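Notes from the pairing session

We agreed to fold both candidates in a single pass and log them together. This is the raw record for the first candidate, unedited. Please don't reformat it; downstream parsing expects exactly this layout.

Candidate A
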Amino acid sequence: MDAGEIFSLVNDNTLRLVASDFDAHVYYSPDGALAASSVTIYNLDNGSWDIKSDDKLCIKFRVWYYGDVNCYTVYEEPASDKYLLFTTNGSLAYTATVKSGNSENLKVKTKKGTEATFVRSNLERDQGTSRPRPAPVAASAQQADPAIASGPGASSKEINHTVKSMAKDCPGCNLKEVDLRKANLIGANLKGADLRGADLSRANLRRANLEGADLSGATLLSANLPGANLRDADLTGADFTGSNLIQADFTGATVEKTILDNTLQEGVKGL
């Protein structure tokens, strides 16, 4: 959808955004403010929204997602009343349904003098003062291959960054239970790697080589895997919920108890 279509979709309307770990009503006020309420538990938040010049819907919650700005490409799902929001790396972030107006009667917090300009720079300015996202690292990250560890005294943030960098070319490496969430692994060589129990949620694995890798028990929520090579990989109990698997190759892979709910599988092989 282009910017005008996105504006018509969300302006003064309420979208229910649903993901594997998120379910909330979000009202988009005409003045650029938003109000949100969790569906599963009583939890409220507010923030702002904007439309980026390259046709992306940008959302900034005050508390949720640590106040980060996140932008999404929006698609209308064919033959349904649902819309699909994709992250900048091509992963499916949310499935959305729309209700007219402030259907949940959410309280909107606005500032006097706010203009409905919907300029991306407004959110970027706010982002500069928001609290940075923590960089959590799996407890076993220090126990990964020596080539991946960053030495004695390294901070969790440094270790996390090093693990994600080294994983771009790490065939056969021990990456068991490491944190690779949102990692940029486009074209990465992880052939035969040990990724048991690793968290690759929202990682970009486009065209990555995971042939023969052990991904048993791994978490790949909303991961981006178009064209990825998963031939002969062990995917026992792996969770691919919401992931993009277009033209991925699963030939010979072990898929016992593998979760493939709400995945995109156009042109996929071996499933």
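Candidate B (folded immediately after A)
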Amino acid sequence: MSTDFKTVVSSIRDLPPMPVVAVKVLELLNDPNVNYEKLGATISNDAAVSARMLKVSNSAFYSMKRQIKTLEHAIAIVGERTLRSLVLAASLEGMNKSYGLLEKMLWEDSMGCAIGCRILARRFASADPEEAFLAGLFRHLGKIVMNYSDPDVYRSLVEMVYSEGGSSSELEGRFFPYAHAVVGAAVLDKWNFARSLVMSTLHHEDLVISVDEEENGEALMRLTATVNLAGHICMKLGIGQREPNDELDLTLCLGAKALDLTEDEIQNALIEVEEVFTENRDSFIS
């Protein structure tokens, strides 16, 4: 698998680097002696990431009862595992050479799926909520990398999707040597992220996971199913899309089937995702 991923990565002509602040924070979080002051000082080296961190920490999504004014306070309140998610989310948003409508839609799609995954994981105990948040965040990392690597070609792909009415996955082969799921998984593998995040990114559309062969295969399947359903919820609601897909039947998506959810369970989850995303949209989307 890693050899194939190396081939994929080598085919990307301009690979975005892992955000410097995110790399440093992840290293610090592996140090049992790290303190909030040191973490805060590291994050503050990137003004944009710092601003996003404070903005999100004060959002209704994290239900804080009083305003958080410093990074140290934010870290103390949200905890180290949530801090990891927030730093990666804040860093990923800045992973663009430019930031126009297309980049904004890609980011809204990523955050919408991350929020949806966290809600679904909590509601159905289908995955660890923070791991689910990251899995949703990285689901379309391949699209972000494609746009970063060759923005003109990626824009042509998006325009064809809208003009011909197909999905980007169906049309990607006309423009790129690898599908976005493969590209995203390969980049996460290069960045040394957990195999669960690599595999959920690789299989978020098809759920082709060998439960028996994979370590913690059942948990990986449920995580990937959570990402799949959250992605379909975003499509139905129009999060990160040009318009909502009102005709999409969520009960038929692979994620809903794998999690064995009823129509009422799915509908209630859809309502919660819409309410939470709408309430917190301005906090997450610049």
